[in-house]
Amino acid sequence: MSVSRRSILAGGLSAPLVARGLVTAGAGAGAGLLAARTPARAAEAAHQFSLGDSEITILTDGGLVLPASTLASNVSDEERNAFLTSHGHDAETRASALNIALVRKGDALVLIDTGAGLNFFQDAGLLADSFDAAGLDRDSVTHVVLTHGHPDHVWGVIDDFDESERFPNASYLMGAAEWDFWMNPDFLADNPEELHSFALGAQRNLGAVAEKVERVGADHAVVSGITMIETPGHTPGHMSVLIEDGGQQLLVTGDALTHPSVSFEKPDWQPTTDQNPELAAKTRRTLLDRAASDGLLLVGYHLPWPGVGRAEAKDGAWRYVAEG
Ligand SMILES: [Zn+2]
Questions:
Q1: What are phi and psi of 192, to 5 degrees?
Q2: What is the pLDDT of residues 138-176, one digit of tens each?
Q3: Distance between CA 53 and CA 243 in Å, rounded?
Q4: Residue-wise pLDDT tens digits, 84-132
Q5: pTM to 2 decimal places
Q6: What is the CATH number of domain 2-322?
């Protein structure tokens, strides 16, 4: 069913509505976006592990590819290329996974972000299929936590085909500052054009569930042991989600960390996808320092599938150590 839905939609879609301004800062970015293809879908659609009595499932929403130039606006092409090449990355493209965490704790089934839907990037929007492949029922999701309002996180709130809610029985939680930023009725007048398509998509998706959204502040408990914490900079009100169970801690970082080498080893590099680069870098350093000191397990939305790992202090910065 989802295959036919996808093919119907594909006929009506032109180039993906990719973040024009935010991702076209690099030379040749437009051509790169159209030519690029994400790697084949992750071999497994779901990766499961336990944290105390909580059951964590990472589901794939597919992937997306941006130009590598989006990884840093404040270093030279030569420096960026040399770093990426020496770390085994492609110097031209930045392939990102889309790893979505689902947490079962007691009676609660908490989904953190909803994926990109089918209108953002051609190889994204697979979350509903991943639920099916893992034998999970979207109707049983009780809470959807939204880390921020970017397309690859909120454009999966509603089904692009029939505009129904993908998680019809869930309540929603989002940072109040983040909600207010994207839902501003004067958004188009108040913000640069490169954000307009993002905002229109956010308003379409978030608007559809507006009565079900609880706008929250820092350190809000979704349920006992699942807490939203402020990690601003990538977007104005970006939040991460801390899960504590059995004396262990897991931090779902959203887009506070986006790349396994750059985010950890060059936290002060400024990706063009960060809306407030200085604040994002400060948040990154604080988060990584805490993660390394406390031995936090991390889930990164865009880190290589399944995006589970830890931060280790190294040479005044950090290193990503994948787990699982
Ligand atoms: Zn993202």
A1: -65, 155
A2: 999 999 999 999 999 999 999 988 789 999 999 999 999
A3: 11
A4: 999 999 999 999 999 999 999 999 999 999 999 998 888 999 999 999 9
A5: 0.88
A6: 3.60.15.10
Round the CA-based radius of gyration of the chain to a whole number and report it.
18
Q: How many A from CA of 9 to the centre of ligand 1?
A: 22
64: part of which helix (H) or strand (E)?
A: strand 54-67
Sign for the pseudo-dihedral over CA of 311, 252, 20, 156:
positive
For residues 203 and 45, give the distance between their C-alpha atoms in angstroms, rounded to a whole number: 29
Beta bridge partners of 321: 310
Return the C-alpha torsion angle 4, 10, 12, 17, nearest 10: 140
Contact assessment for residue 49 and residue 324, using Cβ atoms and an 8 Å cutoff: yes
Q: What's the gap in Å between 33 CA and the centre of ligand 1? A: 16
Q: What single-letter DSSP state applies at residue 165? A: B
Alpha-carbon distance 62 to 81, whole Å? Answer: 26
Tokens of 47: 């990766």
What's the rounded Cα separation, in Å, for the pair 320 and 298?
10
Ligand 1 centroid distance, CA of 28 (Å): 22
Domain ranges of the chain: 2-322
C-alpha of 217 from chain center: 20
For ligand 1, the distance from its centroid to the CA atom of residue 31, given in whole angstroms, is: 21
Burial of 76-115, coded b for 16+ CB within 10 Å and e otherwise, reads eeeebbebbeeeebeebbbbbbbbbbbbbbeebbbbbbbb
HSE-CB at 207 with a 13 A cutoff on CA atoms is: 11
Q: How far is the CA of 98 from the centre of ligand 1 (A)?
A: 8
Cα 23 to ligand 1 centroid, rounded to whole Å: 12
Report yes or no: 251 and 241 within 8 Å, Cβ to Cβ.
yes
Q: What are phi and psi of 56, to 5 degrees?
A: -105, 130
- State how far the Cα of 34 lies from the Cα of 215, in Å rounded to an integer: 36
Residue pair 120/157 in contact (Cβ under 8 Å)? The answer is no
Distance from the alpha carbon of residue 234 to the mean position of ligand 1, in angstroms: 9
